[in-house]
Design brief:
Blueprint (H helix, E strand, L loop, with lengths): L3 H21 L25 H15 L9 H5 L6 H9 L11 H4 L4 H26 L10 H10 L6 H15 L5 E6 L5 H14 L3 E5 L3 H14 L7 E4 L5 H12 L5 E4 L13 E6 L7 H8 L10 E6 L5 H7 L4 E5 L9 E7 L3 H13 L3 E5 L14 H11 L5 E4 L5 H12 L5 E4 L12 E6 L7 H8 L9 E7 L5 H12 L3 H12 L1 H5 L18 H22 L3 H6 L7
Parallel strand pairs: 1-6, 1-7, 2-4, 2-5, 3-4, 5-6, 8-13, 9-11, 9-12, 10-11, 12-13
Helix pairs in contact: 1-2, 2-4, 4-6, 6-21, 7-9, 8-9
Length: 585
């Protein structure tokens, strides 16, 4: 914003600062903006001292705040009875200057109506942008994927077991989306072992029955290979043709696969980021399934969507997450998606008893593992590092595997981590799955996609170095069969009391949604889900955990504004800026 008055004011203050540096500022010691009141603390700026900045902001607010346009429609302020923008900004910088209490507590406790006004404005802007995006997508055509009695019978024949009530409900929700003729955009979330893969397979089989192909993208080769193994087994007698494409498929095999895909002879292609590459081309791409959605960015989803045919029809999108998404974060990160939740575990899953212990009790844990192996079970030992580090005090798998072998001399021990060549890693994991290894020492490469029903013991070293949601994912590698299963979390000698308190959450609950809410509360959205680089909005004023009620209110108000008159609503300054959100996929 160019304004001669503001520019002149800034120059005057900068000159004043230079004079003070030369010894001319002694008479300003009793500055009323810096003494005897709540003082705003700003991040450092070059050539501007904190005192000069406070004074500058004070004068700018005094002289210009009332000229700022209200960015929210009047009706949006009236419901919650919120103060004006100018009052809120004055109180934010100098509590008490606009009639509020002259102390910081309402701000630190987030009870101030002036703070609520700023939070609500920021959230409302975001929600209007999301809902505008949804409206734009609803105008796009998409394949109509409808099942008749013949197709339903074929889908039922694929099932190796009875579906849970939650799976049936989610499949109905997806079926309703498929029949609308507009692109489905749905998040399928469920705790570890809740049965998301079979839902994706049935959806892909329906798409194939209607003449369309499906792409299923996973973030790692291990997870893609696990999905492919499950899918190949489920579709073995269906007549449908699945295939796996990763960076390891090369030469003539890759060329033949791509030729089959472009000719429509592959119904379901499973892969990693390799699916995004050229010349990967589908004949009729009707459904995209993305697993562990939070590990992909918007640009990657958009690139895959662009591989649809040239008829103008947009493929349906199903994104899956085994990391339960707290409701407060789902409103933001996935606010433009419909949400389906698998909240019921399939029969046969056993509860996992979890204990948090200091690392000096490692010997007892090894004795328990030895007894479990004698009883016919298997164990994982998870270590945070591959190699020892001078900067990080934590156990490394390459060295720790020696200690495991000394403690369990009669046991067969294998090791996997990200630096082991894929073929060797796959061979080791295959031996563990087949029961030819008793213990698998690993890093977090086993966090997702590893299914060994006979594994019944999980030992995690330096558990304080992992997030709660990640620990819950690791714990989900056991309890997948009928054996009674245990998980032991060892913390190091330098683990803080707060870390030990955090780990205790896992002793109290095996509900992934409770764990995710606690992880979000303690670590924030980007760190809790590893999504800071993948599209989690970082709000300047709002707090996704403590202000979730305002996010819900903003979502409802955005719906009301657009329902009343979408064209008029977007003329408001707030909503005009929200309309500039990236279009995404």
């Amino acid at each position: 914003m160019e304004n001669p008055q503001i520019e002149e004011l800034i120059e005057d203050f900068l000159e004043g600062e230079e004079g003070k540096a030369a010894g001319e500022g002694a008479r300003r010691v009793a500055d009323p903006l810096s003494v005897g009141r709540v003082v705003p603390i700003y991040r450092k700026l070059p050539a501007l001292t904190p005192r000069a900045r406070r004074t500058l902001v004070f004068h700018l607010l005094r002289d210009f705040a009332d000229r700022l346009p209200e960015r929210m429609p009047p009706s949006s302020r009236e419901g919650p009875k919120l103060p004006s923008l100018s009052e809120s900004l004055r109180e934010a910088h100098f509590p008490g200057s606009a009639g509020g209490p002259a102390d910081a507590e309402p701000w630190t406790e987030r009870t101030s109506p002036y703070l609520h006004r700023l939070v609500y404005e920021e959230f409302l802007e975001f929600q209007v942008g999301l809902q505008r995006r949804r409206r734009a997508r609803a105008a796009d055509p998409a394949p109509v994927l409808a099942a008749d009695d013949t197709i339903r019978a074929r889908l039922k024949a694929l099932l190796p077991f009875a579906l849970t009530g939650a799976q049936k409900r989610v499949i109905r929700e997806i079926g309703e989306d498929f029949r609308r003729g507009t692109p489905m955009r749905r998040l399928l979330q469920g705790d570890v072992g809740s049965g998301k893969t079979i839902v994706a397979v049935l959806s892909a089989a329906l798409a194939a029955a209607c003449g369309y192909q499906t792409a299923l993208m996973a973030p790692t080769e291990i997870l893609a290979e696990q999905h492919a193994a499950t899918i190949f087994r489920l579709l073995a007698k269906s007549g449908l043709v699945p295939a796996l494409l990763t960076g390891r498929v090369k030469g003539k095999a890759r060329a033949a696969l791509l030729d089959q895909l472009a000719g429509g002879r592959i119904n379901l292609l499973v892969g990693t980021h390799a699916l995004l590459e050229n010349p990967v081309e589908f004949l009729r791409l009707g459904l995209i399934v993305i697993d562990e959605q939070h590990r992909f960015g918007v640009a990657q989803r958009t690139a895959l969507s662009a591989k649809a045919d040239d008829t103008g029809r947009k493929p349906h999108l199903l994104v899956m997450s085994a990391t339960p998404i707290p409701r407060s974060l789902a409103l933001t990160l996935y606010g433009d998606l419909d949400v389906s939740t698998l909240d019921e575990k399939p029969p046969g899953r056993t509860p996992v008893v979890t204990r948090v212990l200091p690392e000096f009790e490692r010997g007892g844990a090894f004795r328990e593992i030895e007894a479990e192996i004698r009883a016919g079970g298997q164990a994982y030992v998870v270590v945070p590092l591959i190699e020892e580090s001078d900067k990080i005090e934590a156990r490394a798998v390459e060295k720790h595997v020696g200690e495991i072998r000394r403690a369990l001399p009669a046991s067969r021990v294998g090791v996997v981590h990200g630096r082991i060549p894929p073929e060797e890693r796959e061979r080791t994991m295959g031996e563990f799955a087949a029961g030819r290894l008793d213990v698998l020492a690993a890093t977090t490469v086993i966090e997702v996609g590893v299914d060994v029903p006979n594994a019944s013991y999980m030992l995690i070293e330096n558990a304080e170095r992992f997030g709660l949601a990640q620990l819950h994912q690791l714990r989900g590698r056991v309890g997948r069969g009928r054996r009674k299963s245990r998980c032991v979390l060892l913390f190091g000698t330098k683990a803080s009391p707060e870390s030990r308190e955090r780990l205790a959450v896992l002793e109290k609950t095996d509900d992934g949604f409770v764990v995710a809410e606690e992880d979000l509360r303690r670590r924030g959205p980007g760190d809790a889900l590893g999504t800071r680089q993948s599209g989690v909005p970082l709000f300047r004023v709002g707090d996704l955990v403590r202000d979730v009620a305002w996010m819900k209110r903003a979502r409802d108000e955005a719906s009301r504004l657009l329902a009343v008159n979408a064209d008029t609503a977007f003329r408001a300054p707030l909503l005009l800026r929200a309309a500039d959100l990236p279009a995404g996929d």
